[in-house]
């Protein structure tokens, strides 16, 4: 068993958007970057895949049939695991071959030293919160949250042109900003409260960045300023 | 525990096409028909859902990444189980709430007397073959294979206008027709050899029909001639 | 299978304190009340047991050994399941005999019509949040959160004599009050943010009351005003 | 984790006959050969054990009690796993210690670099078909089907003295020959249709040989012409 | 769910000999008697099947290969579960359809009100001890141990013609008699020490009788004196 | 996979007392000794943790509620597994991270070469008996039973001042001494009959010593005479 220094583990949450294309080209780009991180820099990526377009498809139909929200969460998790399998297929031998389904399986998978790719773990928990818990469990040096926007703003920058971007934000400020967010299954975004609390209780260095392979690579390898850095505290 | 007379069980294989729409309207139509069968006629439907469009999406991408065919089969099965969940959601209280994942779970689910909805069970096995095995295991009175065409032809009627339709066909003739069929994951169609052998060894009355709610209802309730009846023998 | 009208299901979260005594007398009192609810009033209680003193014992020691917070959550869950077993033993034939370990098992257990007793389900999720998810999944008519204090105050009434008690509070006000709360494993209290979001998304009628058998009985049977009623909205 | 070059993996299907003796001497002979293959030639054998005499014993009795064919298949699989355990015991430290029960477990077991011994995996699937699927999943360089006769004939050589032996046969010819075969549980022989399709879809080099330790060794190590080579194509 | 009065449950341990015949005629005789008990007398039989000839076959071969005794126990348990499946097949609809594999599954199975058939449960535990534990767990009114001889003797009656038969024996006397017994896997006989302790701690009325369908029926229905009654105490 | 010479494995049973303190200091002392054994002397400790004070707490309350003895055993096992988790937390990277729950998981865990920590495995089996079975399964060179007293006496030395201490005892003498022992869950002590039989059938070198870290270390490393050595035979 290869035991990699825990501090080389980096948890990377990939937005479901990566998996929403009609073909696999986008996934391939991320796989190349991850394989590159894994081999050149002795980083061990632990990836959490989102559900994306297919998850929304199933959730919307089932919600129309009156399925309860907790069961909808479970459907979203199952799709995110299929997405995780695609990324594992694209990574080939570089990846741990199975998708872990709870924190203990994540630990086992991480012990292999290979790239680990999980999907969601539990209903009622966003993939952000799951990623933070995984970072805590595997003792990750960093949690990189790759999203659709280039960091945290004081309002939604896709709707509000004058939204202010933070290069740094405290967890306290973050909570204030996000306290209005809704949590219908499939509607999670950026950081949520559970993720923030986990980051706080275990003091996990966290950044929120725009999801692009090069941006992720630069943050992980060069700690290059991009997106928003989350500071634990008031 | 409601023990329904085994002979009231009918296994219905639903093509993945039912689940390939952008919304849930098609699924809803099938759910109404199944609920109707279940309540008015004391039939217990045991449904096997195919993978359809979403399954092909995952399989095509993963095959492009070089994933082996057996693992592709597993992805297709996982999507068919998500489809099964949609149908269960649409059926509400009429359906057994979980998707059984092996023959023993199918037996348990069927013992509830409710409508059972499964997806695929095993890699290397088409949903046709799986449906035949399920029919065998639950002692079904009939196996109704609802497909994209209205029965078995001597060549593909979508390509060949002069293709001859059978109103009855022996399993032996069937085998001769189908011996050229390929079995890439996602490419199964109509009856395959394993399904035929199971039908033969357990003498399961089988029909291949066009998948339309009314056609299925008429076959199940009125045994109305539609599609192709498969006769066990030479 | 006895199918009880879903709307008769009431989720009751019992504080770990109920299970913290040296003997079983306190548990016995709650069991009598639950058995009584179950038989006289055609209510189906679905109980979630907290971890209490024994959970804190294990968590404190293991935290001293440097165990990560996610693993500590898991220990707390395991103790809460042992507590659930004690309550099941006290209830005898009135209870579903096993402790469900995920939402699907809760659904199955609830389908028995008997009193269901769960513990925690997932790491990173308070028993409050778990209770709200369970209420959502089983379609409960009500979520009764039985705690150490007699409802929600604007500050901790055990520390601040002048704390103001709410007889009603909106989920929005609740979130504002609770946004400062810490989430070390074992330190959850009253409602937390995840629980509130689940209550909001599924509009679950919720009360926070002081944990006393008679208080719980009166709220469930007579809807008698006690504690704090949570109103979904701003 | 020892990662062996996939192309050194050879799937060897052992007829149930190997396990049908009153004592373990026959199993011992095969174990010696396998251990020898494993150490001297850097081949990683992945073995699939058949059910043999004991499987037929259980299947015959249970069929007499009216048990359905799918359940009989499961009994046969369970006996084949007991046989696999005997071979593992005979191999000692050379073998992966557990019998894998699905394709994912086979993958994990094969990753150990040790000799893997499986039994059947799924009802409705012959051990030939299972072996072909395993060959596909582990990326085997070869599939060696060790049977009771020394290759494929145009009719049963045990019944027909003039039966013609093939030194090579195409999958297409094979299908024609075998299309008449019956599939009562326990009655599978040589290649079946599912196995052939898997061989075709993944172009797995396959030989059918007489089951003798030296014959297997010579085929694996020296690629020595023996039995029948199956050529993918028409 | 049919809840049968617990006190109607009778645990019957069937010697592996019942399952050692070449055909199923012996099993059929026991199945008729059990079905009869179950329907005519409102007794719920909970049967524990031994391993018999086939278990000894596997154990002897594997012991010859140097397999450890604990693993041999596991093989014996697996064969006893195959035997249990045969009896379930012979009982048809009268039996709970699955073989329970731990005490909690036994409880669930027994809750169905049907005849339950288990095999062994744990390595290191004879089927006698397992039967006593099952009797304890399901609250059985009686434990009937059907063996190859007609009760307990002061020495082996098959070897010693003058052996004295007990019509009653205390658990204390029993322990003295049996303290010399060896416990190689497959060599358990009559009562063993663990079984005796369980009988003592839960005061389970126990008889050891000769295994014949009529003898079992008479003991269960008429409490007719046969074999040896075990008295709890000194 | 590190394959450690089996003969370096030593099974150490730790009394529940080690885990009964209010804080973790006692556990820490044992962890240091075990880590030390593991690194300096190339011994692989395989530890079995008892249930101790917390187990008795749950068992006493549940017995008061009338729970059956088999279910009480299960509660005790669950507490012993929580204790095992504490020791694993204290050992950190030196320990296999999960608590194995059956003999096959123990084998897998032991294959890691790390310190393995199990709790109980099966109801109806003392942790002594479980330890002996584990010693058998992993091919341990020794079984060290660390208890509350410094070896085996001819009567309870805590009650009888004149009790005679054995420096060596045969398994036969042991059985005679212990045949009066009761087996209420939670009341097992020293060796029991099942443990003795396992020791006999697999000839496992065994010592019973007073549980002190230095005493255990000296016995394991220097084979220093302490406590009672158990001799297989009459």
Automatic annotation (TrEMBL), chains A, B, C, D, E, F:
Pathway: Pyrimidine metabolism; CTP biosynthesis via de novo pathway; UDP from UMP (UMPK route): step 1/1. GO terms for cellular component: cytoplasm. Its EC number is 2.7.4.22. It is found in: Cytoplasm. GO terms for biological process: 'de novo' CTP biosynthetic process; UDP biosynthetic process. Residues 9-209 form the Aspartate/glutamate/uridylate kinase domain. It holds the Pfam family AA_kinase. ATP binds at residues 13-17, 52, 56, 147, 153, 156. Catalyzes the reversible phosphorylation of UMP to UDP. HAMAP family: PyrH_A. Belongs to the UMP kinase family. This is Uridylate kinase. It comes from Candidatus Nitrososphaera evergladensis SR1.
